[in-house]
């Protein structure tokens, strides 16, 4: 009986890769558990996948509140102690950390209990939690071959297999028009929404416009199809001739793996640690996509869309066995437990 704990949450980028791994992990492990933040959205996804969920507290590192960092170490230790109680109960053979602040208490608890840790970084550069975890993990799996880390192993980003075989999108799209998708994540993005609303008449004069808004909108136009939230993003991807998206690592990988023409609008450095800007710059340099800033999207929306539609399909090759390779590495780490 071999068991594994998955940990990570808060955002889709830290949840969906874990969920994508579950089918491949079931071929290697007899028991799979998910440890995430108490009250976090990862609980719903884990339980929907048939995986028992255990909640623990977590400390978020707030870069815009330097004084709060003074209290972070004692709070983090308290969270790690509570995570340790959960791991003592489960006693997994390995812990797989998807990064993010939710992963850190569980990784620290695993280290204390001599449970092997494997962590995964989706972005071009390591986030703070993964920088700390990589110091003692058996391996840091990366999604980019250029990512630097101790014991780095480039395997790629695990994607849900259903995105490659979506159901049709049940919307009355005009097949004589190109179809655009604006998506800022599963819950939308304010800057992208504002750019769509500011250019809605010009956009709907030329295109079918699919729009994941993240909130209700009363705007109505012919050829405009807003959606507050969807669990069926694969169908929207499949319907789109071009996509305007943030550049979170998971969504970016999904779009490029599907050979979609993409205009990335990354979160600015001020709104994040700069990972989306790095990701977007990398893909533009590789000839896989276009990128622009938020203000540029609003001011030059139609011209940017036209340029995006003229792109060739991205020269991006995705290994569909990534999930199986990650599961195999986790099993290898689990078998080391007896020697720790």
UniProtKB/TrEMBL annotation:
What residues does UDP-N-acetyl-alpha-D-glucosamine bind to?
A: 11-13, 160, 186, 276
Location of the Glycosyltransferase family 28 N-terminal domain: 4-137
Q: Which family does it belong to?
A: Belongs to the glycosyltransferase 28 family. MurG subfamily.
The UniProt record lists the EC number as 2.4.1.227
Q: Name one GO biological process term.
A: cell wall organization
The record, for Pfam families, names:
Glyco_tran_28_C (PF04101), Glyco_transf_28 (PF03033)
Q: Where in the cell is it found?
A: Cell membrane
Tell me which species this is from: Candidatus Caccalectryoclostridium excrementigallinarum
Q: How does it sit in the membrane?
A: Peripheral membrane protein
Q: Which UniProt keywords apply?
A: Cell cycle, Cell division, Cell membrane, Cell shape, Cell wall biogenesis/degradation, Glycosyltransferase, Membrane, Peptidoglycan synthesis, Transferase
This protein is called what?
A: UDP-N-acetylglucosamine--N-acetylmuramyl-(pentapeptide) pyrophosphoryl-undecaprenol N-acetylglucosamine transferase
One Gene Ontology term of the molecular function aspect: undecaprenyldiphospho-muramoylpentapeptide beta-N-acetylglucosaminyltransferase activity
- What general EC class does the enzyme of this chain belong to? transferase
